[in-house]
Design brief:
With 234 residues, the chain is an alpha/beta fold. Helices cover 33% and strands 18% of the residues. A 6-stranded parallel β-sheet has the order 3-2-1-6-7-8, sandwiched between helices. Bound molecules: adenosine-5-diphosphoribose (APR).
Amino acid sequence: MPRIVVLTGAGISQESGLQTFRGPDGLWNHERIEDICTPQGFARDPLRVDRFYNNLRAQLPTVHPNAAHRALAALEQAGRDGQWPGHLTIITQNIDDLHERAGSRNVIHMHGELLRLRCTHCHATPAWHTDCTPDTPCPACGTATLRPDIVWFGEMPYHMEAIARQLEACDLFVAIGTSGVVYPAAGFVDSVTDHADTMLFNLEAPPGRSTFDQTILGPATRTVPAWTRDLLKA
Ligand code: APR
């Protein structure tokens, strides 16, 4: 049974209408990472950080999974139904919920989720669909110590043990819509080359020599369904 691990980045959600981070209209062209995506930035100006993630959270109901999200969900389901003799796990750097809304179940959010907050006092991680401010009380302990449940620069990504197990066991590692500049995700491909084939689906080729065995360029909504169709036909 082929075991496939797919690492997704902001590029897979771009055609759903969500901005990437480093593209021409990337979020980091309009905000400084130090101010928005670090614990220090949150300590300096929590209202500004909360506003940034409130805006992203408010966008989610206005966008929908695209053909690339749906193709991955269908492949996973085909594995469940026995129509395809394989197993698919998605490790996503994305904080949106589009994989789950497309029907994917084997999804590991290594950078957290927009639809969750985290209490720095009692460590509760309540589901959250509205705005949050520095005065918003934690629904579990009542203290106003909530922050976005997002992994910021300088913090350890989530689920690294489960991710390591998936990478060790995979036969094929596929990266979709990621610039490959943020670690540890950017290093996953190097950690599997001794035991797995590797493919990159991206709009543009990564700078320098690609570590991937195969690079398929183009919009994910075109390239990913074509790939999963071939897998299901084979
Ligand atoms: N189809 C395929 N690839 C696309 C598309 C598309 N429609 N649109 C953009 N891309 C590609 C871009 O070419 C780029 O290489 O997606 C990549 C997006 O790169 P980034 O914006 O850097 O996003 P990502 O790699 O997910 O960022 C990693 O950085 O800011 C942090 O925590 C944040 O998880 C994020 C991490």
